[in-house]
């Protein structure tokens, strides 16, 4: 019976993701249009509601062109990796309330009770960079290859601040299990108030990890034609796209879970609310939070210009990583002090307060340091 | 030129303030700009559904027409000035002796290749009798290239269709603005 349940959950979730991705592309086009004072797709169905289906049919019917000099096997493998890793990462992401202590209760996650959940997500989703590199290399096209190389450098660099920023949350929640992390925030203060700096670093790194603007250098049209997917067409191209947008969904859910309390929403739904309707409400709350994050990502994409590659690297190594390290050390010290004095809950407000002050001071200090190093670099 | 040449002006990269280097204030400002614009009125014109009509049809340079005189005859005197002026060489005229006593020649054939035309309006300017003019009709389509080669009858029919809403462009202007004696002085 449990096997049936799990298979059913996998089917529902993967099907839902495919559909969601199709409509996210429509949403992206609509947001782009609105920001440019256009209307956007509105021919297929009411306000373009059938546009994703038309796009899908077009992708399926298009010629699948493989360059003559491409490595056929790797060329076909790359989009598959992109899609598989993106979907696999979603396996441990709870999309609704879970109760690890009660195995009979409905668990809104494909694989409940994975203690290394966060670690698993990072390891699997960073495998997606293989798809980009392989796709770029196998195409035997210099622009594709450059896109792949950029992606490799970028993902390696931004994985570090991403992981370090999340470590602060892990210290506070005392668990890598995503369900436990949500439980640690339920009916208390969301982690974004304890970790404002960590949240900003996570946000920047997540944009880079998902290859979204302003960090979309692997596929910048103006320099690299299309980046790593220049030589892809038809359904293979669509798979890259699906993988990319699935990543966005995963990252948005992660942001909601790690920093915005998951399904918790004060005055609406709390951990004590049990039963089917409350469960459904929690799924909805989490969905809305993730959706807001997705809209924010798209809004940013159509607002900010792209970074130059050296600026991208400087931001990661000279700003985000030092800040993330300081964030980690300070969180560790504060958590240790609070716990050794037995001030677990009363201390939290004080910690939050300290954090805001500390973040401002830190940012100023690091800014001054960067300024100093710059001045010496220009020899003035 | 030596590096310490006094004529060289050495410029320093302007120093960014802390706020500028944090990116965050600029990011928030940018987001507020795009957010505001997204809520503004859309400028898209849904073209086939909301057709565009030139604001001043007299100034628009669209499909040509061959004007008729008061008796309904073609005004053209087959002088070839338009064909000579045409930079795209899209006007083809075959002249013949005029059947009417008021002019020597008239165009037996008058063909314009609307696909070759660049709609510059130089034929209109060159014409001494205001016989050829551009109309404001612009959404010209056809299934074949042959369809888009307009002969005399077709060009005259364009006049018949547009004569009501678009009066003669040049004639009225000349008569009203420049009296004949003044024109001779220039």
Provide an overview of this structure.
The complex is a heterodimer of chains A (380) and B (186). Chain A is mostly helical and 380 residues long. Chain A is built from 14 helices and no strands. In chain A, helix 3 runs antiparallel to helix 5, helix 3 packs parallel to helix 11 and helix 11 packs across helix 12. The model of chain A has no long low-confidence stretch (mean pLDDT 80). Chain B has a domain of 115 residues: Alpha-Beta Plaits (2-Layer Sandwich), CATH 3.30.70. Chains A and B meet through helix 1 and helix 14 of A and helix 2 of B.
In short:
The complex is a heterodimer of chains A (380) and B (186). Chain A has 380 residues and is mainly alpha-helical. Chain A has 14 helices and no strands.
Mean pLDDT of chain A: 80
- Estimated share of beta-strand residues of chain B: 5-15%
Report the structural category of chain A.
Answer: mainly alpha
Oligomer: heterodimer
Task: Find the structural class of chain B using helix and strand composition.
Answer: alpha+beta
Radius of gyration of chain A: 22 Å
Distance between the termini of chain A: 72 Å
How much helix is in the residues of chain A?
55-70%
- Order of SSEs of chain A, N→C? HHHHHHHHHHHHHH
CATH second-level architecture of the domain at 64-178 in chain B:
2-Layer Sandwich
CATH topology-level name of the domain at 64-178 in chain B: Alpha-Beta Plaits
Distance between the termini of chain B: 57 Å
Number of H- or I-type helical stretches of chain B = 7
Sequence-ordered SSE layout with sheet pairings:
The complex is a heterodimer of chains A (380) and B (186).
Chain A: H1 2-35, H2 51-61, H3 72-89, H4 117-125, H5 128-138, H6 142-173, H7 178-185, H8 191-194, H9 196-209, H10 221-224, H11 234-259, H12 276-301, H13 309-340, H14 346-377
Chain B: H1 18-21, H2 24-39, E1 64-66, H3 81-85, E2 91-97, E3 105-113, H4 122-126, E4 132-134, E5 149-150, H5 152-162, H6 170-177, H7 180-185
Antiparallel strand pairs in B: 1-4, 2-3, 3-5
